[in-house]
Design a protein that fits this description.
Distance between the termini: 56 Å
Oligomer: single chain
CATH architecture of the largest domain: 3-Layer(aba) Sandwich
CATH class of the largest domain: Alpha Beta
Structural class: alpha/beta
Mean pLDDT: 84
Number of domains: 3
CATH superfamily of the largest domain: Periplasmic binding protein-like II
Strand order of the largest sheet: 4-3-5-12-6
Low-confidence stretches: none
Shape: elongated
Number of strands: 12
Strand content: 15-25%
Number of helices: 11
Length: about 325
């Protein structure tokens, strides 16, 4: 029994027929039929009961289904691991604060495991260090919107609702949810002038309210921690994704969902011009991790990742 036999068998099951399985495998229908015939000769029993208009799994086919999928998955994983192990070199991966690091940390650990020959240099990036040309300085960036460049390779890691951090003394803190109309009339925490205007514009709702400016109060905040402190002190509310409440919320900080605005995305991004084969492979593996395993269930330990996450959480 060969892997090509199992691949044909599972394709026929998944696509409910030899013709559609052949299209999926980019083979002719006789070639798929030949592989199934060879499989049945090897096993000594039929795996399909063929009718005029349909095919059904025989008891032997039903018994083969689980083991065949596990064998094929194991073979593909072995091939993938061998291919990824061939990559070597160094990659600088920067991480913006407020990037749901408790979710992306396991992803970083898994990427390190999948690329044993690659040295990942993880760099916590402060809000002040962000600028439109940052992707010329690093290979990859974990960030939220706004993205540094319009033309970029983007892999979405997670998406979560947007809301506002509200001082517990504000009447709005008791609302189950708020709208843009509710919050544009409220005072907002002011960002420091050292933060790039693109970030200020996005996270002060200006980009979502037809350039309507909001009132900004208090001393400038240059990151999530200072923003939380300004909110708690009663200077105003601040736009934030849901996970920031878990990361930074405490005391007099209340998170209220904001309806009518797009979700906030955490993405892995690289510049098109700087996306070499290694960086493309990292994008593919990150997408695979998110789609098949999700960062929430991944295990593993990495002191290097822990140090970077701890540093980024303080920005």
């Amino acid at each position: 029994m060969e892997l090509r036999h199992l691949e044909a068998f599972l394709a026929v099951v998944e696509h409910k027929g030899f013709r559609r399985a052949a299209d999926h495998l980019y083979l002719s229908q006789p070639a798929v039929s030949a592989r199934i015939h060879e499989l049945e000769l090897t096993l000594g029993v039929p795996v399909f009961a063929r009718g005029q208009r349909s095919i059904e799994l025989t008891p032997a086919g039903q018994a083969l289904l689980g083991p065949a999928q596990r064998m094929l998955d194991a073979a593909r994983a072995a091939r993938r691991s061998a291919q990824l192990a061939a990559f070597s070199g160094e990659v600088e991966l920067a991480i913006m604060p407020g990037g749901a690091l408790e979710l992306t940390r396991p992803l970083l650990v898994e990427l390190g495991r999948r690329f044993p020959g690659v040295d990942f240099h993880l760099r916590p990036l402060s809000m002040q260090e962000w600028h439109p040309g940052i992707l010329a300085e690093v290979d990859l960036l974990i960030t939220r919107e706004p993205f540094p460049v319009a033309e970029a390779v983007v892999t979405e890691l997670l998406s979560e609702p947007m809301g506002v951090g509200v001082p517990s003394t504000f009447e709005e803190s008791r609302a189950p949810e708020l709208t843009l109309d509710d919050v544009v009339s409220c005072a907002h925490v002011r960002m420091t002038e050292t933060v790039h205007p693109q970030i200020v514009r996005h996270w002060s709702l200006t980009s979502m309210t037809n350039d309507l400016e909001v009132e900004r109060r208090g001393p400038g905040a240059d990151g999530p921690l200072q923003t939380r402190d300004r909110v708690e002190s009663g200077f105003g509310l601040a736009v934030a994704p849901a996970s920031v409440a878990r990361l930074y919320g405490q005391g007099g900080y209340r998170f209220v969902p904001l309806v009518g605005v797009p979700d906030s995305r955490v993405v892995l991004v690289s510049a098109v011009a700087g996306t070499n084969e290694l960086v493309r492979a990292i994008h593919r593996e990150a997408a695979d991790v998110v789609a098949r395993l999700t960062p929430l269930v991944l295990g593993g330990e990495s002191s290097a990742v822990d140090r970077v996450v701890a540093a980024a959480m303080q920005l």
